[in-house]
Design goal:
heterodimer; A: 433 residues; alpha+beta; eleven-stranded mixed β-sheet; 17 helices; elongated; B: 262 residues; mainly beta; outer membrane lipoprotein receptor (LolB), chain A; 13-stranded antiparallel β-sheet; 4 helices
Chain lengths: 433, 262
């Protein structure tokens, strides 16, 4: 085997220009793959980090309360009893927060917007405090009733600043019109798409706005130690809450605000709980990831096809150039299988060297881009879920890219190598070329 | 000022048409309840009702929108249908209320959606209640706020508070009632927080003889709604071609509304 490796390496070294060209192409594709995978992983991680603090827990125990069949509110009544079961049945829990959910019109003196209204107790929101970057005002002031936190984009749309007053207009679960005047105490930096939808007010103000009592909330957001445990916890909570007599909505991979139509169509009244995961609640944003992953797949596939054609072509040239050598090797007793392996090793060596160089290059470019902290335009922020370009490259992903592309290049040489092995020694030795 | 001019312009309209029902003296509770019952009863038909409605919506930063819709009502069993006929983009869309359920149909998606009873009709400042039977005496308790002048009209100002256990969109309503005719000339609706949400003007009232009721049925020929939270938003509704003859039996069905968009 060592001899075959030496022959393959020598042959690659002899045809330096061809090797450099093809190896360079393989390195380029690998580098590009590493960067694109880093980008999509970066978006996924940013989405997980921001969405699971701004919008959702890893798992949410929420629900709908219907006063009449056609009128639902995102409310969990008598939530302390639910909380007790959730705490008891979730040993994987790191921490839990309670959030109020609402939807209404947010009106300034000059403009208005429809938006989600999230009620919270800012002192207990450790995760949120880490994620939010305050551009103006003080986050701690959000503990005062009648206050609101906006994002920069919302403040721009409403033409307001810290200290200004907004009116939130909505209907209570019983359909009674209500309003709440709130003072802007903090404006946070945008965090992509999410910051367009939500404003935050103290839980006590949300209860006041929606006329909810102290034992009603919007959702219990659970944060787990290990995300791998998520499906098991979800199943367990469904089973235990059903056992405790709660009615549950059928699982549906949608955020809660997309469920109103379905829930309003159903003929039931009273309380139904809904257990969702962070992926369900952010499914309206997952198109960004799917688009990027689709683009990555298409681009890499096209480039790989070009490389496969290049490898096959190179192998055909090598076989043609070395036909007499193959004939001689066969005549002195080399087995067909070893001839085949010799050519495969050559392709593998080329693939491994190219992908290794490409992966290193991709890692370097990713590190450089992260280090530069490049700010992206607002339109791109929506797509990237961040105001800065962030690539997350993991060792396992790099290794997988190297193995996958090396395997493809080796497999591309399979047919030419097989044809070389099939040459008859006498014919090969008489070959003139 | 815009609203004052509106009243000065219409101050002569309708007065001659309407019978005198009350003087200018302050009202006690019984008289106020009686007045609300009269308002409700005058607008109640008991039979069927059809009309053409012209809607003009103004919203800040947006192009003005004009729409036309047909209203069908069967008061005997609380059914209501609103079918949009203009512009072309809205044609075939509609609302259907059966019992306590309000449904919305959009032919472009071919789906029915259940909406809340307090839906803002077609995104305007008008609500379903504005086209439905009046239930003021049933839903509210009145208190007297005094006598005022509204343009050339002398009016009673009443404050209505929602009765216990009754679900209404606005818990408090202020009414300005013509002392001569008892017609509503102005109405203001307040949110639970006490904030003024909407002001409505009813400058033109008309009546028509109803065979089913065997008496006149009253309707506001023009309604002007002003959003008091977003000050620049307003909606004008003009009611035309009121017809109180019996409607087809199958009109208040989803199938009927769907058939109109085919």
């Amino acid at each position: 085997m060592w001899t075959l490796l030496q022959i393959a390496a020598r042959n690659l070294a002899q045809h330096r220009r061809r090797t450099l060209l093809l190896g360079g192409a393989i390195a380029g594709v690998t580098g590009l793959l590493v960067i694109l995978l880093g980008l999509s992983t970066g978006i996924r991680e940013t989405m997980l980090r921001t969405a699971t603090t701004l919008l959702t827990g890893h798992i949410n125990v929420a629900g709908f309360y219907k006063v009449t069949a056609g009128q639902s509110a995102p409310v969990v009544t008598d939530y302390r009893a639910v909380l007790e079961i959730v705490r008891r049945e979730t040993p994987e829990l790191t921490y839990l927060v309670e959030r109020g959910r609402g939807y209404g019109k947010i009106i300034s003196d000059t403009a208005s917007m429809q938006g989600g209204i999230s009620g919270l107790d800012i002192q207990g929101e450790t995760g949120l405090r880490e994620v939010l970057q305050i551009a103006d005002g003080r986050l701690d002031d959000l503990s005062q009733p009648g206050t609101v936190l906006l994002f920069e984009d919302q403040a721009k749309r409403l033409e307001v600043k810290v200290g200004d007053t907004l009116t939130i207009s909505t209907s209570t679960p019983r359909g009674v019109a209500n309003t709440l005047d709130v003072r802007i105490v903090a404006i946070a930096r945008d965090v992509g798409l999410l910051s367009r939808f939500y404003v935050y007010i103290p839980m006590v103000s949300l209860r006041n706005l929606y006329q909810l009592n102290d034992n009603a909330t919007g959702a219990l957001m659970l944060y787990l130690k290990d995300l791998q445990a998520l499906p098991a916890v979800q199943e367990r909570l469904r089973a235990k809450l059903t056992e405790a007599g709660y009615r549950l909505l059928d699982p549906s991979p949608q955020p809660f605000f997309q469920k109103f139509q379905t829930v309003n169509r159903e003929d039931w009244t009273g309380q139904k709980l809904d257990i969702t995961t962070w992926e369900d609640e952010t499914s309206f944003m997952s198109w960004t990831l799917q688009t990027l992953e689709g683009l990555t797949f298409t681009l890499i596939s096209i480039l790989l096809v070009i490389i496969v054609i290049g490898i096959m072509n190179t192998m055909w040239i090598a076989i043609r150039e070395r036909t007499r050598e193959i004939g001689t090797l066969r005549a002195i007793g080399m087995q067909r299988s070893r001839v085949m392996i010799m050519f495969l090793i050559e392709a593998l060596l080329l693939g491994l060297t190219g992908t290794a160089v490409g992966a290193l290059g991709g890692l370097g470019v990713s590190a450089l881009l992260n280090g530069l902290g490049i700010e992206v335009p607002v339109a791109v922020q929506l797509f990237l879920m961040s105001d800065k370009l962030f690539l997350s490259v993991h060792g396992a992903t790099v290794l997988l890219s190297v193995i996958a592309i090396s395997l493809v290049t080796t497999l591309a040489a399979l047919y030419p190598a097989y044809r070389a092995a099939r040459l008859k020694p006498i014919t090969a030795m008489h070959h003139i070329g | 000022m815009r609203r004052l001019i509106l009243f000065l312009c219409v101050s002569w309209f309708g007065v001659g048409l309407l019978p005198s029902t009350a003087g200018a003296a302050p009202l006690d509770r019984a008289a106020m309840v009686k007045m609300l019952e009269t308002i409700d009863d005058r607008q109640r038909n008991g039979g069927d009702y059809a009309s053409l409605m012209y809607i003009e919506r103004k919203e800040k930063g947006k192009t003005d929108i004009a729409q036309e819709a047909l209203i069908y009502r069967r008061d005997a069993d609380d059914k209501l249908m609103i079918l949009y006929s203009k512009p072309k983009s809205e044609q075939g869309k509609g609302y259907l209320r059966v019992d306590r359920n309000l449904w919305y149909f959009d032919p472009t998606v071919g789906k029915w959606e259940r909406r809340t009873e307090r839906e803002r009709i077609g995104g305007t400042d008008a609500r379903r209640q504005d086209f439905d039977e009046s239930r003021l005496a049933l839903e509210y308790d009145p208190t007297y706020e005094g006598e005022e002048k509204l343009g050339n009209f002398t009016v009673h100002k009443l404050k209505l508070s929602a009765k216990q256990g009754v679900d209404v969109a606005y818990p408090v309503i202020l009414l300005w009632l013509d002392t001569q005719t008892s017609n509503i000339l102005k109405r203001q609706e307040l949110a639970l927080s006490g904030k003024l949400m909407r002001t409505s003007y009813y400058p033109k009232w008309q009546y028509l003889f109803s065979a089913s009721k065997k008496a006149n049925v009253w309707y506001p020929q023009e309604m002007r709604f002003y959003d008091e939270v977003e000050k620049d938003n307003s909606t004008l509704i003009v009611v035309k071609n009121v017809d109180l003859r019996p409607l087809e039996a199958n009109i208040f069905t989803k199938a009927w509304l769907e058939s109109k968009s085919r």
